[in-house]
Amino acid sequence: MSEEVSKNNEQEMPAETPQPEADAPAEAVPEATAAPEGQTPPPPVEKAPRGRGGREERGGRGRGDRGDRGDREGKRDGGKRRGPKRREDSDQPEDEFTDTLVPGGIFRCSATVKGGRRLSFAALVVVGDGKGTVGAGYGKAKEVPMAIQKAIKIGRRNVAPFPLVGDGTIPHEVHGRFGAAHVVLVPAGPGTGVIAGSTVKTVLEMGGVRNVLTKSFGSNNRKNLVKATVNALKSLRSHELVESLRGVKIS
Fold first, then answer.
1. Residue 152 gets which letter from DSSP?
2. pLDDT tens digit sequence for 113-138
3. Which CATH class is domain 98-161?
4. Are 125 and 223 in contact (CB under 8 A)?
5. Highest CATH level, class, for 174-246
6. In the chain, domain spans
7. Region of poorest pLDDT, from 4-8, 107-111, 202-206, 247-251
């Protein structure tokens, strides 16, 4: 009996219907702020994906960004790329001095060392403007071109003026000495020319002397002759200077 009653009760009780689960609250979506009248709304910001590829999309520094670095530096300097400064020769005054090598003015010197021979060279150069200024330079180096450049630099540093009168001659007779070399310079008339040896003639022509008589005594060493000639030109005095020193008028 009890089994029949329980079966009847099960038939009479209605079956429980499954209730639907409550939906999860949806994420709040931020509403776009309304732009004021007369202005366009800003564009939406897109988030770059994380990862190795996202670095390039965000504009991160990579191997290919090295060229952009130079562009940024150029913009920082006002659009000018950095580089060596060029010398503008147009604004510089032209150099009036010319230089020439004394005939036979290249000297070779060899020093014997443990490993063999060590060679060096020296150059004797005269610098002048042809208008009453002259100087001499003597430079030494391991190569001939460098020795000549040194001699020119020293010669430009040692230039000194001297007076010229008439048609390119000297105002009076003068003697010049250096070591055992002795040089005598005598004024000459127009059309005479420079009567001198090759070494002394080079110095006089670079100084602008066109008419003069010369004579050398003692040593014929090129270095001593050049320095003796330069010393003779430096000791020249003009008529105005002599008049001012003596206080008399020279006819």
1. H
2. 988 999 999 999 999 998 999 999 99
3. alpha beta
4. no
5. alpha beta
6. 98-161, 174-246
7. 4-8
